[in-house]
Specification:
By secondary structure, this protein is of the alpha/beta class. It has 13 helices and 42 strands.
Length: about 675
């Protein structure tokens, strides 16, 4: 880096060569160079202010194979430090108040400058969820989804929130400078205006119209690309992200591995790990990990989402034309919207819920996860638990880990991909008990029930209870088998000792901190420690989130054990082999039943009606052959074969445990 180099005053002979090459300077005494500086590689350059120049010995070859010697030509530099082997050419206006590190390339640009003091986007207030600012989050370089979740949604813990905001303000102040940085190996090509922007190593900035006040936190492991036509103001972009194709950004944080393109527009929004936005618009949204919107007519506004896919034409309303845009929406992890869906905020949609149609009443389905919310004759109809049998839900859960674009060794967001967890299973318990209560309150068997502005049909209610119980049995069985795997037991006493939790932490409610699933008590303790001053730095808060992520499975068993005791009706220190075998049998049945439902759901994709549009100029046989060439055969489909393998593997796993403990009496 140029700041570590030894500089000397420029010599008279070097000045003569520069002047002969058309270079100018008001005061040559303000120019310093390193030994090895080659004045012959500077042509038509105007220098002003304090200038430092490194050596130029290399040649840069672009992707087309065209080579250019490093050096500076046709440019004006003011108060700049230029590292070694930098190529700067054809600057229409000037580069001012920048530290340009080694191996940087800047070609065909208008103006790159720092004006006054800047924190380069750090400390910018983003009016997320509530456009009027009641839940604003101050962004900084390493803002995680979990920290932002707490800042935005835990306003009842005002002392802790104030202290976190003070930490962010202190961090931002520490970055304040009147000199920007263009880090090593960065390329800036064909850009119009860059003002008060800090660029991390290996950034590629090409064809942008304007970057104004922000940080591009690129890294060698995972570079950032900012592409043609982009206009960004007051922003932070993290490693591995792409912003391109005339995207418009104002007051946004863009986390690791995100892609925003194809004229996407976003303001006052937060995007965390692996989000993708194309064509559409975002306003005051909290886009947790894997929030994806891909359609021109889609507006996401004033809502929190994660693991979410927005269908074309999806829309929400965040005000009722009375007190302004003050309402917010919550769509818990894994929810989806179909084409032309509409939700009236305030509303809360439970995890892994599919929203179809337009819903004009405020509703809360948070205790009824894995449901369909359907519009029928202007009524909102809820089908509880039905998404548990959808092959699409399983496919989503399988694809998210595979689509993690983050290559940086340090991952800011700690993402738990588990479909079934204490968070979702707790809601299944709530859903099961709620449906039973709705049924009992209604008295006699009813053809339909009403709940929170929604209609639940009688058959759907009964099936929902069964599906939730199946999901509960599957999760508890999974946890039990995991706890007992690879251990030989000689007695019920040995079994009981193993079943006893190793940790106290884990009991009670669990929450989803935008991707991080953890016990509520752990979050409360974190906030207590922040309020008391025990935790006093952003790095310590990051460390606590990392510990929550690593401790998930230890804490999960504590929670599962408590629920298992309630389901069996006795404490684990009274469990016998018959109790374990009984739970494993329930588990096997639930796994096989769910997999069979998924199998039949997948089969629908291979029916004759699904072949409509295939075999365009032939009969039924050609239609079938055309379909098989494009989509493959049912039994060889990867999802279908995975379901079949899953049935075999899980059945064998359950049988192995039963056989391993069968000798105990």
């Amino acid at each position: 880096m140029s700041l570590l180099k030894k500089y000397r005053n420029i010599s008279g002979s070097e000045i003569k060569i520069l002047e002969a090459n058309g270079c100018k300077c008001d005061d040559w005494e303000k120019i310093q160079v390193v030994d090895g500086f080659d004045p012959a590689r500077c042509m038509n350059v105007t220098f002003s202010g304090n200038i430092k120049l490194g050596e130029s010995t290399k040649t840069y070859t672009d992707d087309s194979g065209v080579s250019t010697r490093c050096g500076i030509s046709n440019a004006r530099l003011h108060n700049c430090s230029i590292g070694s082997n930098v190529l700067i050419s054809n600057i229409g206006d000037y580069i001012a108040n920048y530290n340009v590190e080694d191996d940087v390339i800047i070609k065909n640009c208008g103006k790159i400058h720092t004006e006054g003091k800047s924190t380069f986007g750090n400390g910018t207030e983003v009016a997320v969820l509530n456009e009027t600012g009641g839940r604003s989050v101050k962004i900084w370089d390493r803002l995680s989804a979990h920290e932002a979740y707490i800042i935005a949604l835990y306003r009842h813990r005002d002392k802790a929130i104030k202290k976190i905001e003070e930490m962010v303000a202190e961090y931002s102040k520490s970055l304040s400078s009147d000199t920007g940085t263009i880090s090593q190996n960065t390329r800036i090509l064909n850009c119009r205006d860059i003002r008060n922007v800090r660029l991390g190593p290996f950034s590629l900035i090409e064809g942008v119209i304007s970057l104004n006040v922000g940080s591009v936190n690129s890294s060698k492991e995972d570079p950032v690309f900012i592409g043609p036509g982009v206009i960004m103001e007051h922003f932070i972009v993290c490693s591995g992200s792409i912003v391109t194709e005339s995207t418009l950004i104002d007051k946004c944080f863009i986390g690791q591995g995100c892609v925003l393109g194809k004229h996407y527009s976003a303001e006052n929004s937060l995007f965390f790990a692996n989000c993708a936005g194309f064509h559409g618009e975002a306003c005051s949204i909290f886009a947790g990990p894997y929030t994806v919107t891909h359609h021109k007519s889609t507006l996401l506004i004033a809502g929190i989402f994660s693991f979410m896919n927005a269908g074309s034409g999806s829309n929400q309303s965040n005000h009722m034309y009375k007190l302004g845009p003050i309402h917010q929406g919550i769509m818990e992890r894994g929810s989806k919207t179909t084409s032309d869906s509409y939700l009236l905020w305030p509303a809360r949609i439970g995890p892994f819920t599919l929203v179809m149609g337009r819903h004009y009443k405020n509703m809360d389905t948070s205790s009824l996860p894995f449901s369909y919310l359907i519009e029928s004759n202007d009524e909102s109809v809820l089908v509880p638990g039905i998404n548990l049998r959808s092959v699409g839900t399983i496919r989503d859960a399988q694809k998210w880990p595979k689509r993690d674009r983050r290559k940086d060794s340090v991952k800011i967001d700690h993402v738990n991909f588990n479909l079934l967890s204490p968070y979702t299973i707790r809601k299944m318990f709530e859903g099961r008990d709620l449906l039973r209560k709705i049924k009992s309150v209604a008295g006699a068997v009813s053809s339909s029930y009403t709940y929170n502005n929604m209609l639940i049909k009688g058959l759907s209610l009964e099936r929902g209870i069964e599906l939730y119980q199946t999901g509960i049995n599957k999760f508890l069985g999974n946890s039990l088998i995991k706890r007992l795997e690879n251990i030989q037991f000689r007695s019920n006493s040995d079994l009981q000792k193993r079943l006893a939790p190793d940790k106290v932490t884990g009991d009670g409610e669990w929450v989803d901190l935008a991707g991080l699933i953890t016990p509520q008590r752990v979050v409360d303790k974190l906030l207590d420690d922040i309020e008391s001053g025990k935790i006093s730095s952003l790095q310590s808060i990051e460390g606590e989130f990392s510990n929550m992520y690593k401790s998930y499975y230890d804490w999960e068993w504590t929670w599962s054990c408590g629920r298992l005791e309630k389901e069996v009706g006795k404490p684990v220190n009274k469990f016998t082999i018959s109790d374990v075998v009984g739970m494993v049998d329930k588990w096997k049945k639930s796994v096989i039943d769910l997999d069979k439902m998924l199998y039949e759901d997948a089969r629908k994709e291979f029916t004759l009606s699904s072949m409509t549009g295939f075999g365009i100029d032939g009969g039924e046989e050609i239609k079938k052959r055309d379909f098989e060439q494009v989509r493959g055969e049912f039994e060889s489909n990867s999802v279908v074969s995975a379901i079949q393998d899953h049935i075999k593997q899980k059945s064998a796993l359950g049988d192995e445990l039963i056989e391993r403990v069968s000798h105990i009496r």
